[in-house]
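Hi X.,

You mentioned you wanted examples for the new student's onboarding notes, showing what a folding record looks like when two proteins sit in one file. Here is a clean example. The first protein comes first, with its sequence line followed by its structure tokens.
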Amino acid sequence: MWILAVLTGAKSFADNPILGSKRLNTAGLHVWRLRTAHALARWRRARLARGIPAQLKKQFDSDGYIVIRDFLSPELFRSIQRELLDPQLECRSQQQGDTITHRIPVGPRLRHRLPGLAKLLDSSPWKGLLAYVASTRTEPLYYFQAIAGGVAEGLPDPQLELHSDTFQPSMKAWLFLTDVPEDGRPLTYVAGSHRLTKSRIEWEKRRSIEVKESGDRLSQRGSLRISTDELAALGLPQPTYFDVPANTLVVVDTCGFHARASSDRPTLRVELWAFCRRSPFLPWTGLDLLSWRPIAVRRGEWLQTIVDWLDRRGWMRQHWRPAGRWPNNVFTFPGRRHPAESPNQSERKEMRG
């Protein structure tokens, strides 16, 4: 079973003695998986390129991310904000350090109540954009989530450290439903860090050899951390900060280095979040049973239920716990407003002045 995992998206150096073998990684196992995954991703993206506008393709190929402001129509944007104030919405939460994330899967109920959103998620331009970044037509998982930073007791948020999610190209997207100011723990991304350069390959090999002995816990589990001081040696710039107005879409390849920025105050981001990561060693772009519509639209809710069942039997730990009604938990900590009441960035600057 450990050997079979080599040809999957498994990434943990700590949990798999083959993937974490110092001898095998010195001989080039991790580098082989890295090179092969990226080569196949490039091949799949070449076949998916027709689904994305040329200027967005150019931006992504260069930087590893796509940014589109004023993404939704004002009417659809406001309808989504209003829907998220519904007191009947049940959510889950997870704490990481001093940050608490609340999340609701986008299932049939929310799609029915937000037909404009359902139409967007099913549209060819949207699907083409996310498929190109993910290098697969596999249907992403969708969630509404609120990230409240600096509001809980605990160690620093581990997501404040620059990291790569995994060795393989994969996709995450954020459609921000509130303004994200510079001091609001915005998403950051190191432009160009999605590309597999010679320097990056050497860094990955070195880390794969030493990580079990000298790495932090998350790096040992395959999400390699990097400091800003190391970026120059890899020919990379300092991170780009996405302090953006509400209704901005950001889509990134999470093989590139990214993080949440830090802040010296409590912060809140509310967003539609999408995630897609398929086995990296499949040459085809589709043929995914989980993307069949009756399954795809319910997958987030079903996944939650399945992990609950496995957790009760001690086979898997459920990190997302029931957290009650969405607005009561998300929008009421001191000093914050509902997203529909949040001032825009120009008003915020006037308030600071």
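Then the second protein repeats the pattern, sequence line and then tokens:
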Amino acid sequence: MADSTSTSSGCLPHFKGFSTAVIHDGQEPEKWNSHAVVPPISMATTFKQDAPGEHRGYDYSRSGNPTRNCFESTVASLEGAKHALTFASGLGASTILMMTLKAGDHVVVSDDVYGGSNRLFSKVMTKFGLEFDFIDCTNLELVEKTIRPGKTTMVWIETPTNPTMKCIDIKAIADIAHKQEGIVVVVDNTFMSPVFQRPLMWGADVAYASCTKYINGHSDAIMGSISTNNEEIYKQCKFLQNAMGVVPSPFDCFLANRGAKTLKVRMMQHQTNAMAVATFLESHPCIERVFYPGLKSHPAHELVKRQCTGFSGMVSAVLKGNLDSTTKFLQSLKIFSLAESLGGYESLIEHPALMTHASVAPEHRAVLGITDTFVRMSVGLEESEDLIEDIDQALKTSSGSDSTAPPEKRQKTQ
């Protein structure tokens, strides 16, 4: 059954039983002798065996850990997948997926991807013989033309993209890619989270996420995940998880597992606040343009309503002015913290050209529109009116139109 948010927004109904499943799947108290309701943190690096090669499910924590396995069950449930694997970071998960390829393989990538992904692909993986084309994957004809039969082995997209919030038709991309045998479609689902989008239901082979962000939701654990229904991809990545050792710590898995239990209620509030902030920005005289899929002005608004159950909490905007005035705006904010990352309960803002996407070539940033006045906001769980007041006073200060002193920084509470 759809709740009032999905119905009023015109999006897909929310996934049935989502919060129930994520709280209980893989978390059965009967798994532990103590019947602990909260899965315990297993910090053991090694496990006693009954006889040589005979163990009770675990031998060495890099190969498998009870706490990690609990969280992987949670991630699989979140994404509606048969299998999930977690890694020491989002880029660790990306590296594992790249290691399923071989020298000479070709990858089609959406042009506007996270700066770390761009850096990993273009400056690291090319040294090992992989070839990449960064293209506008909203242009389906271009995607089809860029795929090289017999050479292309992966299509990697983000939707919405980071940071310009372009939204891509997952089903259309999957249909195009799967015309050629052996092409794996990976969708970075970090911005939407599995609450609002499940890539596997649209034909993607892998749903990828930086669990550091919304899934954990508390800015205190770094982790990445991949989810899939494809047995071969799962077996490959499971082998590489152990062979390459890019595994998360049990404590981080505990934190992320705990954070995931409140994912849906958090995402609903992130969305409510983001819509309020985006609507305010769109009407503000100091703002040139706003990028938020929930706004009717977003070019992919109708696509998102067909593909997603909501719009998430990420908002980008172009300010009027220059680098100096944009810097002053960022420094004048009192509630928003100027910091990288996203998806935590606190509101963050950043300057992609100088921060998250500084490693992207300047000429490529220019094509994407990541200019000196472009900012990206992760709208948190504070009161929306406080966030709007904070943005307003900072815009007035940076534009020189503020006749009053900015308010004192409010005490942040948890």
